[in-house]
Amino acid sequence: MDIFKGESLFASMFSYQPSEPLNPEFGFFGIDTLNFLPNSGSYFLAILAIMLTIIAKKLLNWVCVKNEQK
After folding, report:
1. Do the beta carbons of residue 39 and residue 33 sit within 8 Å?
2. d(Cα 41, Cα 6) in Å, to the nearest integer?
3. Which side of the chain, N or C, has fewer Cβ within a 10 Å radius?
4. pTM for this model (two decimals)
5. Could you tell me the CA-to-CA distances from 58 to 37, 40, 67 in Å, in that order?
6. Alpha carbon 38 to chain centroid distance?
C-alpha cells in the first residue's frame, strides 16, 4: 500500500536494473522485482518523517533549555 506515492519518487531519484521476482509466489503478491525500494512503497518516507520529527523535537528542546531564563 503506497499512500505517499513513494514508488514514483524513488523511480525518479534512482535507476534500477530490471530483475525478476524470486519465484512466482512473489509475483502473485505484487512483488514484481528483487529491488527493495520500489517494493517498499512509502515505508522509507514514513520513517524519514518520524526521524525528522524526533530530531526537530530534540533541537527545539535543546534551544528552550539553553535559552531558559534563570
Report:
1. yes
2. 5
3. C
4. 0.58
5. 29, 28, 14
6. 10
